[in-house]
Design brief:
The chain has 16 helices and ten strands. 47% of the residues lie in helices and 11% in strands.
Length: 398
């Protein structure tokens, strides 16, 4: 039986990801088990997840995923390279995943593999140093060098899902893992599209929910039911703007040098970010004041989020030190049984297992717990936002 792993690629708000699950089972076999390494409460775009990780896990299980593992915040709220680094490491460490499956605009491996070969070549490294020394931002320098070496084939690095797919393949190669990659075409509206579509973008669905629009018809039935319940309980929709006074208060107390750990490119962005905080009275105003052509908005959002949480992105080569189970169905529980003898990392099936971890792994878990305490303060109902929930909430079992 094939076991397909997806990295935060299953988004229960996006109907296209339901198509992805059906398609991978069509190609690999109807009995294929699906393991999702899913972002926790904070996501790669640099924001709070609109629905808590356990609620999203329930929706994922209703949508066809069998086992959900957590990608902790230092990787989930990070740039593409570190995001992929953490996700591939989690799936590889299970010892049971046979295929790494992802959606991409290209929908085929060959151009993505060529991009990986280019990025790993001496010629690329030489060219990147040349343009970086000229003051060109990293993203622009990278695109320029790859276009010089690959021509039009470099276009895949200008598309968001292709870019992430390339980083998955690079992480897979670096890890030397035997998981077989499978690229599937991304379907539905574009990444940040506001286009009306039978498969609308997750961004459009998110905006519709946050602005009180008619979102039910945009969601799979299971996800809509979960979201309805969470809204009724006061635990959704979650948005950073609900607690923006707390975010701004935290940032205004920080000295300029304290922002340096969150300046991933070490290009001096932290100076600009600090100056923006001195003038801004809202999150949107802060981001607008810091924005330039040099710094994409996603990077600014991640810097803001990481600074507020006190949690920088994972270091190069650093991987999650445990496998946190967020939920499973019957087939997923069978996989967990197999993982007991094959997993390369400790498997946490209940919060109490954290006491069995070594000191370094416990620190990562405790850091995640602190992040969750801040996440719950963005619940619409404060009576649902009590601290310590990470230590009391077990996995969703169906």
């Amino acid at each position: 039986m094939a076991v397909a792993g997806v990295i935060a690629e299953y988004n229960p708000f996006h109907r296209g990801h339901g198509w992805l699950l059906a398609e991978l089972r069509r190609r690999l076999g109807a009995d294929t088990a699906v393991v999702a390494c899913m972002s926790g409460n904070f996501v790669q775009r640099g924001d709070f997840a609109i629905l808590s990780k356990h609620a999203r896990t329930e929706a994922a299980l209703l949508g066809g995923v069998d086992l959900v593992l957590e990608l902790p915040t230092p990787w989930s709220a990070a740039a593409a390279e570190r995001f992929a680094q953490g996700g591939v490491a989690v799936l590889a460490a299970t010892g049971v995943v046979t295929h790494l499956v992802f959606g991409s605009e290209s929908g085929e491996l060959a151009p993505l593999q060529r991009a990986v070969d280019c990025l790993e070549s001496p010629a690329y490294c030489t060219g990147l140093r040349r343009y970086a020394d000229s003051g060109l931002p990293f993203a622009a320098a990278r695109q320029t060098v790859v276009r010089e070496l690959m021509g039009a084939a470099a276009d895949c690095l200008s598309r968001p899902n292709d870019t992430l797919a390339v980083e998955y393949l690079r992480a897979l190669r670096a890890a030397g893992d035997p998981m077989e990659p499978l690229a599937l075409p991304r379907v539905g509206a574009g990444h940040d599209s506001g286009e009306a579509s039978p498969m609308p973008s997750a961004s459009l669905v998110r905006e519709t929910i946050l602005t009180g629009g008619d979102w039910r018809a945009l969601l799979p039935c299971g996800t809509a039911d979960v979201l309805d319940r969470e809204i009724a309980a006061g635990r959704a929709p979650v948005s950073m703007r609900i607690c923006q006074r707390a975010v701004l208060a935290r940032l205004r107390q920080m000295e300029e040098k304290e922002f340096l750990p969150y300046d991933g490119g070490k290009e001096g962005l932290y100076h600009r970010f600090y100056n923006a905080i001195r003038t801004a009275s809202s999150i949107d105003g802060l981001l607008a004041a810091a924005k330039t052509k040099r710094y994409p908005m996603a990077r600014l959002r991640r810097m803001l989020l990481q600074s507020y949480l006190g949690t920088p992105q994972a270091a190069q080569g650093e991987v999650p030190p445990y496998l946190r189970v967020l939920g499973a169905n019957a087939r997923g529980r069978a996989l967990l049984g197999q993982m007991r003898g094959r997993a390369a990392l400790p498997v946490l099936t209940k919060p109490g297992h954290v006491r069995l971890l070594d000191g370094a792994a416990q620190r990562v878990f405790n850091q995640e717990a602190a992040c969750t305490d801040l996440y719950t303060l963005a619940y619409p109902a404060l009576d649902q936002a009590g601290p310590g929930q990470e230590y009391r909430t077990g996995p969703v079992m169906r």
